[in-house]
Amino acid sequence: MLILASSSSSRAKLLQEENIEFKQIAFDYDENLNKNILASSYVQNVVLEKEKQFFATFEKDFINETVLFADSIVCVGDKILTKAKNKDEAYKMLALQDGKNASILSAFLLVNARKRVFSLSKTTLYFKEFEKNALKDYVENDFYQGKAGCIMCEGFHGQFILKQIGNSSTALGLDTQTLKAYL
Fold it and tell me: Is 0.85 surpassed by the pTM of this model?
């Protein structure tokens, strides 16, 4: 059985939708890494740090299991957007996306005793201008919380997407097509 080392409800839902049997193990992860690097390097480093921190805590419990680590970030140009800490930060992140495009980079690491599979995927979303009342409702009701770059494709952002290049599952936090190829 696959072990999802993540507290992400979005990733759990994606696995359920793909009929992948899994057990979810949530753990606190310290995401404070250097953001002065390429976005693709940053998200990969986060996944490797998650692996290190998880096995430092749970190594004996899951040594013979297949464990999945994943992370996603949003970037607008060269600017890395992680999770907004407050409403002011959310408004700033959303202003960078308004009428422009944003890329979601999603990395995963699949580990067991026989293999290590690392994957990096990208989906780019092109947005029309956000409707001001919808934007205010999204932020003021805290719907942005826990979302990389404040992006919620299945909610607020969905109504403003003009074009998408890449997989929807990547935009939601996990490239399930690639993952399924290695399970």
Answer: yes
